């Protein structure tokens, strides 16, 4: 979360200053920035696309319980809390 805040404020503040203020190392930030996305992040991105499609098909009326049910019917192994969390990010 701290590294994302740094990335989002590049150009407004110096990287070293932000790292110091947030208590992280500059090298840690650059290592995070250059690291490929984790398997969980990639899976969440794919799942989020499925959630958006299901939500769009329902004309924006389905919440996390119905979307979870629909995803499970399609063969996805997901929990309602995960779906709800991903829905909150958009």
UniProtKB/TrEMBL annotation:
Signal peptide location: none
Keyword Iron assigned: no
Record-annotated membrane-spanning stretches: 12-32
InterPro entries, A to Z: HTH-like_dom, Transposase_IS3/IS150/IS904
Pfam families hit by this protein: HTH_21
UniProt domain HTH-like: residue ranges: 44-88
The protein's name in its UniProt record: Transposase
PANTHER family: TRANSPOSASE INSF FOR INSERTION SEQUENCE IS3B-RELATED, TRANSPOSASE INSO FOR INSERTION SEQUENCE ELEMENT IS911B-RELATED
Source organism superkingdom: Bacteria
Record has Membrane as a keyword: yes
Record's keyword terms, sorted: Membrane, Transmembrane, Transmembrane helix
Organism (species): Steroidobacter gossypii
Organism lineage string: Bacteria, Pseudomonadati, Pseudomonadota, Gammaproteobacteria, Steroidobacterales
